[in-house]
Amino acid sequence: MAKLVGIGACVLDTLVRVPRYPAEDTKLRATVSRRAGGGPVATGLAAAARLGADAAYIGVLSDDAGGQFLLQDFARYGVDTACVTTCGGYRSFTSVVWLSEAAATRTCVFDKGDLPPLALDERQRDAVEQAELLLVDGNELDAAVEAAQRIHAAGGKVLYDAGGLYDGVERLLKLTDYLIPSQEFALAHTGCRTAEQAARALYDAYRPACVVITQGKDGGLLFAGDDVLSYPAYPAEVVDSNGAGDVFHGAFAAGLLKGYSVEQCCHFASAVSALKCTGFGARESVPAFDAVQSYLKENGYAL
After folding, report:
1. Residue 162 falls within a domain, yes or no?
2. What is the pLDDT of residues 235-256, one digit of tens each?
3. Where is 49: in which H helix or E strand?
4. Where are the beta strands (DSSP E) in the chain?
5. Residues 6 or more apart from 162 whose CB is under 8 A from it?
6. pLDDT at 303
7. Which domain holds residue 167?
8. Does 197 reside within a domain?
9. How many whole angstroms separate alpha carbon 162 and alpha carbon 220?
10. CA 247 from centre of chain
C-alpha cells in the first residue's frame, strides 16, 4: 500500500498559452494548447511520486474521455489508481487555463462536472489506514473527514492544501496536522490583516503541528508555536505558474516522508515549485529529486 494517499480534486485541464490576455469580445491566437491532468491533490500526488514518494489517489472519475485521460496521466507519473471508482454516464471535472506570457500569470475557468461524491468503500478505507500521510484539499469533504479520522486512529497524519473557502472546512481543519493555506485563504478565513497574524490565529484555533502560509513569489512563512520563520521563493524564469501551489504541497508531503523537518520541507517544496515554473505544464515540469538537491545547494541551502 502507498505511504501517501490523496482525496480531493482531479481535473482535466486544457492549457492555453497566450501572448497576453485578450480584451473582451476579441480573438487572439494561442501560442500553445494542450490537455493535462490538474487539481490540487491530484497534481500534488503526481509531484510527490516524481520525487520518489509512493503515492495513490482515492476518488471517483468518469468513464468519459476526460476520465480516461486522467487515469492515463496518473499512470504516466506513477500514481497508483487501484482505489479509484469509475462511474459511467457522468461528466468529468474540467477547466480551461489561460497562461499569459506577458504577465507570467494564469487565469482559470472551471466546470465541476456532475460526478457523485466519493463514499469510501472497504478497499479505500484500508488504503487510508495503511498510509502514513493523507493529502486533502477541501474537495470531497465528507470522505476527506472520514479518511482523516481513520488515518489518525491508525497513527498517520493529515496534510491540508487549503486554497478553497468551501462550506464546512472547519471539520477538516480540526483534523489537520500540517496546515498549508494560501495567503488568500488564511486572511479570508481568519479576518486577519497580515499573514503572520493569520498563521498564529490558525494555529491557536486548530492546533496543527504547524501552519505554513504560501505567498507565491514572496515565498512564505512557517509557524509551529514559537517564532514565525520565513522561507524564500527560489529564483526561476517563469514560463508557467499554473499548479505551482499544488506542486509545493506534493513536494512538502514527499519531504515529510523522507524524514525532513517542517522547515526543511518548506525550502525543499519552494525549490521544487520554482523549478516547476521554468517549464510548461504543472506535472511534466516537476524536477527529479537529485536536480532539486543540486539547485538548493547552488542557492545556498543544503538539506
Report:
1. yes
2. 999 888 889 999 999 999 999 9
3. helix 40-50
4. 4-7, 11-18, 32-38, 55-57, 59-62, 84-87, 94-100, 105-111, 133-136, 157-162, 178-181, 210-214, 220-223, 228-231
5. 137, 138, 169, 173, 179, 180, 181, 182, 185, 186, 189
6. 84
7. 9-20+30-298
8. yes
9. 14
10. 6
Q: How far apart are CA 238 and CA 84, in angstroms?
A: 34
Tell me if 3 is assigned to some domain.
no
Number of structural domains (the chain) is: 1
CATH number at residue 208: 3.40.1190.20
pLDDT of residue 152: 98
- On whether residue 2 sits in a domain, the answer given is no
Considering the entire predicted model, what is its pTM? 0.95
pLDDT for 146: 98
Contacts from 161-164 at CB under 8 Å and sequence distance 24+?
A: 161/8, 161/40, 161/41, 161/44, 161/135, 161/136, 161/137, 161/245, 161/246, 161/249, 162/137, 162/138, 162/186, 162/189, 163/40, 163/137, 163/138, 163/245, 164/137, 164/138, 164/139
**What per-residue confidence (pLDDT) applies to 280?**
84
Question: Which cell is 87 given?
Answer: 462511474
Mean pLDDT of the chain: 96
List pLDDT tens digits, range 270-291. Answer: 999 999 999 988 899 999 999 9
Residue 106 has what pLDDT? 86
Q: Tens of pLDDT along 79-115?
A: 999 999 999 999 999 999 998 999 988 899 999 999 9
